[in-house]
Amino acid sequence: xxxxxxxxxxxxxxxxxxxxxxxxxxxxxxxxxxxxxxxxxxxxxxxxxxxxxxxxxxxxxxxxxxxxxxxxxxxxxxxxxxxxxxxxxxxxxxxxxxxxxxxxxxxxxxxxxxxxxxxxxxxxxxxxxxxxxxxxxxxxxxxxxxxxxxxxxxxxxxxxxxxxxxxxxxxxxxxxxxxxxxxxxxxxxxxxxxxxxxxxxxxxxxxxxxxxxxxxxxxxxxxxxxxxxxxxxxxxxxxxxxxxxxxxxxxxxxxxxxxxxxxxxxxxxxxxxxxxxxxxxxxxxxxxxxxxxxxxxxxxxxxxxxxxxxxxxxxxxxxxxxxxxxxxxxxxxxxxxxxxxxxxxxxxxxxxxxxxxxxxxxxxxxxxxxxxxxx
Length: 375
What we know:
The chain is α/β, with parallel strands linked by helices. The protein folds into two domains: 6-177 and 352-370, Rossmann fold (3-Layer(aba) Sandwich), CATH 3.40.50; 181-348, Glycogen Phosphorylase B (Rossmann fold), CATH 3.40.50.2000. 43% of the residues lie in helices and 18% in strands. Strand 12 (296-299), helix 12 (302-308) and strand 13 form a beta-alpha-beta unit. The relative contact order is 0.12.
């Protein structure tokens, strides 16, 4: 029996490089999806190594404009460009990344008879909760989607609420993953008690709340050391806060690292600190840390709890005192930390990107088969 080759059109309306969880995810996902041909729409500049995951890469030329007076004309222009690309590529299905935003809107307005599967990432939900126009965009995209994919049941429920529970039957949960075969646990895990070498990696903005980890170090009984890896709007503020809090020698800042470099460094730390205080769609970096044998101290958000369960050490989101207690506990109780290392590795193995790719392909085939124009 011949396996069907799926022709998929997708894209993210930003520069095409591994600069965020979403762009890293799609790179891994479509590189791991079997029996498919993927055309990706993105923005210049394009990272050539990152581009290699896709069979074809097309750069969008329409100038981006944010929500406001120029958003409508911008979407109209983008829609015309996307429509011409759909005619050229003739995909079997469209995977709209983000349940909202301009590119997904352009897909829905030009797809015609081509089924759309929308993949939620999180930022569009935060935008829809803040803004009525963004919520209208979300609902228009949802209405045009044959299926809506969320990485956790918590995120699926949030989408269901924001769309007035009109599309419940279209929602499905497919957890994200990472290329587990590339992750390495260090041969000799740390032993004994004492101050920990901690790492935090991610975007440095208000929602990620890195300041919680910095302030927690002023409250710990042990002189733990924290390395912060990443860039963002709050980097300079965080560096200044660390100095003002007397942590110049205990908090170190490194720039954003490509995944290969980040994964090379992760096994050198004793634990990972996750500090997001608001919505988190999935938290790929948590699985990356666990796959490298790091116990995780995490802010106890519903979606993250669903992801980690008992394989991490929770604390109250945004509460440095709560985090300090957890960190000192990990530093004093080595048997517990050793148990969390084992639990972390076992938990990470639930989230392989090849499984994500296979399940998304199976969903795409089901959607196509029940679509009126399916052949």
